Design the sequence.
């Protein structure tokens, strides 16, 4: 994982999000969940100094379920505090994350704020999502050959480009990431419109 983060930073990627654990993953066997929690804690503790030294701001999207071990929750909070002022790159780890839940919570927040239905816009809605300064996702790399969204940042991926490398996530390395990034940079993004022709006309 850390080599992918380093490759992204070196390539000039300003925002990188990793999907570590979804709200649906709580349905997995207890032993597997326990292993994953220990693994995430080891990764956080091991790489915190390097991430900070590289100027990477670390944020965690989710982390609201009471089943998260207290020690892990503290380590996550400490990492966010340690790196909070960094701006070389923002690394968002989606942990205990669900895109639908984020949208529901944003809707609840809007209702509580007393905004009239007529005043709700895409911009005002997005302002109530977690980390509203996060830009829309440009590229989603779906490893393991899977071709589904899996409830990941549903609002933010509306116009994302997708690539589907066959490598499993544990085997996904910096060269794989750079290959995906190269493929993305070769694409022409239209955002629902049409590209101008060579004379600058549409």
Sequence:
């Amino acid at each position: 994982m850390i080599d992918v983060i380093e490759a992204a930073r070196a390539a000039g990627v300003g925002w990188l999000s990793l999907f570590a654990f979804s709200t649906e993953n709580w349905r997995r066997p207890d032993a597997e969940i326990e292993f994953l929690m220990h693994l995430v804690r080891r990764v956080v503790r091991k790489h915190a100094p390097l991430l900070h030294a590289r100027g990477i701001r670390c944020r965690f999207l989710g982390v609201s379920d009471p089943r998260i071990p207290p020690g892990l929750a503290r380590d996550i909070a400490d990492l966010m505090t340690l790196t909070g002022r960094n701006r070389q790159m923002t690394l968002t780890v989606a942990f205990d994350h669900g895109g639908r839940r984020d949208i529901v919570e944003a809707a609840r927040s809007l209702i509580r704020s007393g905004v009239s239905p007529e005043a709700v816009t895409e911009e005002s809605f997005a302002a109530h999502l977690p980390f509203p300064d996060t830009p829309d996702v440009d590229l989603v790399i779906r490893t393991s050959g899977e071709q589904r969204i899996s409830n990941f940042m549903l609002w933010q991926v509306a116009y994302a480009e997708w690539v589907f490398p066959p490598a499993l996530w544990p085997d996904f390395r910096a060269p794989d990431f750079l290959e995906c990034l190269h493929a993305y940079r070769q694409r022409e993004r239209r955002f629902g419109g049409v590209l101008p022709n060579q004379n600058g006309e549409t």
About this structure: The radius of gyration is 18 Å. The longest strand covers residues 89-97.
